[in-house]
Amino acid sequence: MFSLLTDDFALNGFKTVCVDLFDGAPMPEAAITGGPGVPGFSKEEWMKTNDPALRLHFAEKVIAALKAEGVARFGTTGYCYGARHVFDLAFAGLTHVSVVAHPSRLQSPADLQKYFDVAKAPLLINSCTVDRVFPEEAQIKADEILGGGKFAPGYKRAHWEGCTHGFAVRGDMSDPKVKAGKEGAFKESVEWFKKYL
Fold first, then answer.
1. Are 70 and 92 contacting, i.e. CB atoms less than 8 angstroms apart?
2. For site-directed labelling of 95, which of 41, 84, 122, 183 has its Cα 20 to 30 A away?
3. CA atoms 116, 118, 123, 129: torsion sign
């Protein structure tokens, strides 16, 4: 699924790289979607091994390699787990434009306030109606801290009604609201990158 998103960004004119944050061992699809259990798999153990702080170096190495090739500006996008990396890369001043969708692994309001205080990258958040990890309270807090022109580099939150956590990368495309959310979030992301990169 991420390779298709990567291809779609490339088709919109961006040099696009999808970083393998999991070193070839992503969480099994069934563990993500709630399908039948995966024998011998422990989600808790996987999360310990794949704590975002332990995986950020993969993205940092890719950025360093691209800089060596002459790439000067970087936009990052993170879906769910990847949002943590987008924030951390912006905190470190390594990226210039940030996009997240249904973010997880963020502490609200602390990470939102830190983004305001430290980051210089314009931020787009694609949020949705039903999201237990970035719920309505966190969405409102993001708007309070970053919205209304307060975050000078730029901030926008696009909200997708009738969608649930994961909508921007997976979901029932036969549901018109989910389809509109997935396609709309991608369009918003492309427009955000074109505006600020």
1. no
2. 183
3. negative
CATH of the domain at 71: 3.40.50.1820
Q: Does residue 36 lie within any of the structural domains?
A: no
pLDDT tens digits, 119-146: 999 999 999 999 999 999 999 999 999 9
* pLDDT at residue 155, as a whole number: 99
Q: Has this prediction a pTM greater than 0.90?
A: yes
User: Of the candidates 57, 64, 84, 63, which has an alpha carbon nearest to the alpha carbon of residue 75?
Assistant: 63
pLDDT for res 37: 72
pLDDT tier at 43 (50, 70, 90 boundaries)? confident
182-196 per-residue burial string, b: 16 or more CB within 10 A, e: under 16: bebbbebbbebbeeb
For residue 12, the tally of other CB atoms under 10 A from its CB is: 15
Give the count of domains, the chain.
Answer: 1
Q: Are 163 and 171 in contact (CB under 8 A)?
A: yes
How many other CB atoms sit within 10 Å of the CB of residue 136?
13
* Residue in the structure block whose two tokens are 């998103």: 5
Whether 111 has a pLDDT exceeding 60, the answer reads yes
3-class DSSP assignment, residue 124: strand
